[in-house]
Amino acid sequence: MQAGIASEPPRLENPVYTAGMPRTLSKSRPRQGARLAELRRAAHLSQAALARLVGESQQNVAYWEQSDKPPRSDVLPKLAHILGVSVEHLLDVRTPITRSGPVGKVRKLFEEVSELPRRQQEKVVEFVSALVEQYRRQAS
């Protein structure tokens, strides 16, 4: 070493590390972000590749995968199309199954009643309503 010339500190390089190796997460992903990451990996895309296809930055894709907030509404259809899923599937929307009416024999009977003329339907409704009201009074 010559006098007056400072030398650079030695670089510590990890030969095992490669740029393609993802960082380990320190906390678990929210459901929304985990869903996006799972779909991206299933499509064999890196965050950078998905970002290019969507027209966003890799940092945005990383944020979406770490967040419980969905991507902007203008980005969702693009993401869904690229990943080959619906927007609802991408967002992991679970719609509750609701029943539209009574089950079994009662449902079948009401379907038959719905085919009657309006005036007769009203009489059936009036009769059933009276029975239900009478039952409620007895129960309380």
Task: Kindly report the CATH topology of one domain.
Answer: 434 Repressor (Amino-terminal Domain)
Separation of the first and last Cα atoms: 99 Å
The structure class reads mainly alpha
Query: Considering DSSP H and I runs of 4 or more, what fraction of the residues is helical?
Result: 40-55%
Superfamily (CATH H level) name of one domain: lambda repressor-like DNA-binding domains
Number of helices: 7
Assembly state (oligomeric)? single chain
Name of the CATH class of one domain: Mainly Alpha
Overall mean pLDDT:
79
Radius of gyration: 31 Å
Largest sheet: none
Written as H for each helix and E for each strand, in order along the chain, the element string is: HHHHHHH
